[in-house]
């Protein structure tokens, strides 16, 4: 039995080996043959299949990059209170629109009262010292007093003027108008006004909280000057120049195209071997908001190339093909090498001179061809 078993195994191995080899050869022949499909005139008409020659077009090499919608630093404002205080009223939420000069919040603090008191007293004393200075000046001119007395009066007057001026500026810091301040309208509160028109992006405080001068209460943004900040790798920076036109679209809405122009190029390469390219949108759209991710296509150059409509190129097995018309409604699938896609056309480096290709609904032929091949 030990001698017979190997012989039987060899016989079965030969038989089992012959059949796959024959089937493989048959399958290979089928694949080779399944490159041509023939339709009836009715099928061509119903399939809306169109035929035409490859054309020579001006195609631009396209650099694809990504970035975010941003605003310049001067359009982003962090609001704080220089002297601090207790937040009395505030009715802001992120996303709310604000206008320049609008009251954002009201704060209270005893130091506001003290500051107004100091200013009014300094202003009153300044009036007295000014009158004394003018009097001493007249006396000095007539030699009725000594130069020392006059100089002392002048020094006290000028020093008090500095004190009153400094207190005046402090009042302006907390938005209290010193020109309208009197002993009858001293207030314990101070208001914060919006420095720009735009939207609230952050609210970091709540009513009743004490805020210090270093606390950022709110953040505001003015979206009127939106720009696109693109990240470009160092190998591609030399291909980009100021004034270059780009096409961009949001990641969540690729069908909506926007145009922009390269405005500034950062000549510094960061640790990621990339640089920032600053682009201005040609037209403002309120749908664009800061922080939104966008993809962009930058046209680098133009060249005359052979091209066919995008609909003429089909993919099978991750390889591109076109269908060449052989006459009498017969079409052959031809492998091609594709290049840049631009404005609805695809560049083809394979020579298609003198050939008529299917320019529309080529995928209809591909499905017909592969379905026929499977049935066989």
Automatic annotation (TrEMBL):
Keywords: Transport. InterPro entries: Beta-barrel_RND_2, MFP_Cation_Efflux, RND_pump_MFP. The keyword Transport applies. The keyword Transport applies. Residues 229-299 form the CusB-like beta-barrel domain. It comes from the Bacteria. GO terms for cellular component: cell envelope; membrane. GO terms for biological process: copper ion export; plasma membrane copper ion transport. It holds the Pfam family Beta-barrel_RND_2. One of its GO terms (molecular function) is transmembrane transporter activity. Belongs to the membrane fusion protein (MFP) (TC 8.A.1) family. This is Membrane fusion protein, cobalt-zinc-cadmium efflux system. The lineage of its organism: Bacteria, Pseudomonadati, Bacteroidota, Chitinophagia, Chitinophagales.
């Amino acid at each position: 039995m030990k001698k017979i078993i190997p012989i039987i195994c060899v016989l079965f191995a030969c038989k089992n080996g012959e059949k796959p080899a024959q089937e493989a050869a048959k399958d290979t022949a089928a694949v080779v043959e399944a490159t041509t499909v023939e339709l009836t005139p009715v099928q061509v008409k119903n399939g809306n299949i169109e035929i035409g020659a490859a054309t020579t077009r001006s195609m631009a090499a396209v650099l694809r990059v990504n970035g975010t919608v941003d605003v310049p630093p001067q359009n982003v404002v962090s609001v704080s209170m220089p002297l601090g205080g207790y937040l009395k009223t505030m009715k802001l939420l992120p996303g709310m629109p604000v206008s320049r000069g609008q009251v954002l919040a009201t704060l209270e603090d005893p130091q506001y009262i003290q500051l107004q008191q100091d200013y009014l007293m300094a202003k009153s004393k300044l009036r007295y010292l000014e009158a004394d200075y003018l009097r001493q000046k007249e006396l000095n001119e007539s030699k009725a007093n000594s130069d020392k007395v006059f100089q002392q009066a002048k020094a006290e007057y000028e020093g008090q003027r500095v004190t009153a001026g400094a207190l005046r500026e402090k009042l302006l810091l907390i938005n209290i108008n010193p020109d309208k301040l009197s002993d009858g309208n001293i207030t314990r509160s101070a208001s914060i006004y919006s420095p720009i028109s735009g939207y609230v992006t952050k609210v970091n405080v709540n009513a009743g909280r004490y805020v210090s001068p270093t606390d950022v209460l709110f953040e505001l943004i003015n979206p009127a000057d939106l720009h696109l900040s693109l990240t470009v790798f160092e190998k591609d920076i030399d291909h980009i120049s100021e004034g270059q036109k780009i096409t961009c679209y949001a990641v969540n809405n690729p069908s909506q195209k926007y145009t922009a122009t390269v405005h500034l190029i950062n000549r510094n390469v960061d640790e990621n071997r990339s640089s920032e390219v600053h682009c201005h949108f040609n037209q403002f759209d309120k749908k664009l908001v800061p922080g939104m991710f966008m993809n962009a296509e930058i046209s680098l150059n133009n060249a005359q190339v052979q091209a066919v409509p995008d609909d003429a190129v089909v993919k099978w097995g991750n390889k591109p093909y076109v269908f060449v018309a052989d006459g009498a409604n017969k079409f052959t699938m031809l492998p091609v090498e594709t290049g840049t896609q631009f404005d609805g056309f695809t560049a083809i480096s394979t020579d298609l001179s003198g050939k008529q290709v299917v320019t529309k609904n080529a995928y209809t032929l591909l499905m017909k061809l592969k379905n026929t091949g499977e049935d066989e």
